[in-house]
Specification:
single chain; mainly alpha; 2 domains
Length: 125
């Protein structure tokens, strides 16, 4: 268990650094307030996790430790959006359309509601 946590932690550390560097690079290329850096990282992360899922489906190309390092660790640290999209993909791939819709709706709507709630609570005090 400790080895697994360390692998995930190292992947997350590496992914977080890459997220910062890539996001800053693309954001600094524009003069717009639009978050192009974050958008770039999110879609890159989705592409990467798609590549990884494709590799996993091909057979025993990677051991479970490397899979955890790359998906939960690196991709999770790089962008949790890729994990969110990947989870939805797995639900749809398994014909769980109801749960996919529920997860998507609850995540986006619930996320906005709780962000607003947290923001509003701080503003009260």
């Amino acid at each position: 268990m400790i080895k697994t946590l360390l692998l995930i932690g190292m992947g997350s550390f590496t992914g977080g650094i890459f997220r910062y560097l890539i996001s800053r690079y693309f954001q600094n290329m524009t003069n717009y307030s639009f978050p192009v850096g974050t958008l770039t990282v999110n879609i890159m992360g989705c592409f990467l996790i798609g590549l990884l899922y494709g590799l996993f489906d091909r057979g025993n190309l990677m051991n479970s430790n490397l899979r955890l390092f790359l998906t939960v660790g690196f991709c999770g640290g790089f962008t949790t959006f890729s994990t969110f999209v990947g989870d939805n993909f797995q639900l749809i791939k398994g014909d769980n359309f109801f749960y996919s819709s529920l997860y998507l709706s609850a995540s986006v709507i619930g996320g906005y509601i709780l962000l607003f709630l947290g923001y509003s609570l701080i503003k009260l005090f």
